[in-house]
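ok here's NAD(P)/FAD-dependent oxidoreductase, seq below lol
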Amino acid sequence: MSDPSVPPTAGHLDVLIVGAGISGIGAGRYLKTELPSKSFAILEARAASGGTWDLFRYPGIRSDSDLYTFGYEFKPWRDEESIASAPRILAYLRETATENGLDPHIRYHHKVLAASWSSGDARWTVDVERTDTGERLRLTAGWLFCAGGYYRYDAGFTPHFEGRERFGGPIVHPQDWPDDLDYAGKRVVVIGSGATAVTLVPAMAGTAGHVTMLQRTPSYVMPLPKKDTVGNTLKKYLGAARGHALTRRKNIARQRAIWWFCQQYPKAARRLIRLVNVKQLPEGYPVDEHFNPPYGPWDQRLCAVPDGDLFRAIRKGTASVVTDRIATFTEHGVLLESGRELEADVVVTATGLNVQALGGVALTVDGTAVHLPDTVAYKGMMLSGVPNFAYAIGYTNSSWTLKVGLLCEHFCRLLAHMDAHGYDICRPEVGDPAMPTRPFLDFGAGYIQRAVAQLPRQGARRPWLTSTTYQADVKLLRADSVADPELHFACATATAVAR
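and the structure came out like this:
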């Protein structure tokens, strides 16, 4: 008799993709076109596709990368604005899903809780919760592909603020933006200096009475044109597909050149960014107080402001920047360590994200729980000792989707290689146990540093060294063979006999 406490198994799939955002839709499209015989499903815990671009609803939300590189290589970006708003990006993603026949493969309200691998059966058993009904079910799959990014969707990061309960107005985190928040004509304080803060401030400044960006530490901020004039011209005369492809190459090269210049010549890059800021800000503005970070350019991500909208709001007087530390909240605003009080009707805590590896899915391999810090990332897409498992993590120093496209291609080639040779199991294993390792992401952003000890590691050499450049990954993931001495293949029958 079956145990009623054990959820019923609801079917077997060749590949189970977790997450219907930009990475999951991309993975589904590559599977659909490159390996049409493979069965797959895309599980999405929320009620809608689009991931980040459906979740976040705060004013002005947009990309901070151009859509020629942030969009898919296979689907031209046709809009005139290359720095696009969330609704345009969301429409693009859903159009991609529909055009590629992915809609029937997406299962909404399906939250993956845990996955257990059996080498004897060469399959994952995946525990899923229906978020709309609370029902539990199980699926089995030959491969598990985590495409949910690396931060928690249910809660953003807010540090402890002394006296927060004393404040009389609303305190809002951008990740939980209420639809009915009224800030028209009101004094708004936005706490933070990252990409979210520099997006919110000019977007709210046109409606609010005044918006103050309160930052503890400045960030590098650079204006970027909303429209790519060269790209729009190429599309006009060469057609959408060719114009998109050429503009994509141009922008990939530009991203790489800017990052390289900042890394190689940080003092010169700092001076150049400062010069641009001075030209954008009012005469006599204290640039070094508010736009002079203590770290080097691209030690953390540069904040892009489309058409200089943040600087324009400062020039108009509808927005301002204050660099100081919070001593305590008061009934009427925020008291700073300098003794100054910022009066506010609304406070927005644009203080960052909470990183959550693999969407919080608990992994088990042959009865042993996977402890992520004990694993090493293989080619930036698999984990040592974890069979038939892949994940999608994009770049931190250029457009996220550039890497996702390459690793989805490689993933499909890997599955085809296994089919051609009759393999059921693929497991990366470090050949030299003494190989030095270091943190998975070499990035100074606070949200990464808070969680880096809970993430996998990376090695000191390829294929265990996680590439940070598109050009290197083109060689590793597109041009190189999927076969590797440290990638071990097996058949389920042979594994069962050995066991």
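fwiw Residues 9-153+354-498 form a domain with the FAD/NAD(P)-binding domain fold (CATH 3.50.50.60). kinda neat tbh
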